[in-house]
Amino acid sequence: MTLQQLRSDVADRTAQVRVANGSDTELLITRLELHDDWFDGPAVRDRDSTITPGRTVDLRIDLPPSACEGEPDADARESVLVFTMRGGTEYRVPTEDSLGFTGRLHERECLAHDAAAVASLSWGAFTPSAAGEPATLQLDIAPAGGDGSLRIVEVLPTNLLRFADVTAPLPLGLEVDGRAQPAPVDVPLVPSRCDPHAVQEDKRGTVFTVAIETESVSGTIEVPASPEQRGKILSWVAAWCRYG
Predict the structure, then answer these.
(1) Which of 45, 67, 102, 159 is in the most buried spot, having the most CB atoms within 10 Å?
(2) What are the b/e assignments for 10-22, b being 16+ CB within 10 Å?
């Protein structure tokens, strides 16, 4: 039994518990729980799942928020899967996360938690452009009023969008504290590709990764465009590429 997260699970914050039935008896799991010190409460799947002999099934669970205050260090962390079978028998199995996605999720979400205590980042006004010219997406920074500071290092391009005249990440080097209101940042955008299916099949093209540094740790957080902004950006890409 292993815990894993497929690429399609990331946006929905779900995971898969893979259960292989190597016996000659049908398994009926009525309830599945993940208890992990790095999550804020258990993940619960409360419905019947039948696994016939010789079959392997992935059972999807919704992940709770990461625990980012008072959680134990990695060497003291406990993580257990609890299976309730037909008839009420329970089995407790240490969680096997061979890809280590729960650790990366905890690190990423707790960095965002710490950064939000200083300031929140979001995308504001989007100004489209004519073909061949860069559009502008405004990065808004809202101080949270607390102590501490935050450095916004750079913004990474997406699979659909890059920065005008820059193929690499866009450097910002902006210092932010929890009380001062910094000016918004205009980010120049151009499409990185113009094949129509890039827009038609887009899922992550308007989710930007931002590299940040707090007083204690550095890493990246994701700042997605809102659904309304996403629609405007994708329409602009289609028009800019002359197939809209």
Answers:
(1) 102
(2) beeeebbbebebe
For residue 172, what pLDDT band results from cuts at 50, 70 and 90? very high
Average pLDDT of the chain is 93
Tell me how far apart the alpha carbons of residues 205 and 241 are, in angstroms, rounded to a whole number. 15
Q: What is the largest CA-CA distance in the chain?
A: 66
CA neighbor of 21 nearest in space, from 60, 59, 51, 58: 51
CB-based contacts of 192: which residues, under 8 Å, 6+ apart?
A: 157, 158, 159, 160, 161, 162
pLDDT in tens, 106-132: 998 999 998 988 999 999 999 999 999
Tens digits of per-residue pLDDT, 149-169?
Answer: 899 999 999 999 999 887 789
Q: Determine how β-strand 218-224 pairs with β-strand 149-155.
A: unpaired
Do 85 and 23 meet the contact criterion of CB atoms below 8 Å apart?
Answer: no
> The whole model's pTM is what?
0.77
In this prediction, residue 244 has a pLDDT band, given cuts at 50, 70 and 90, of low
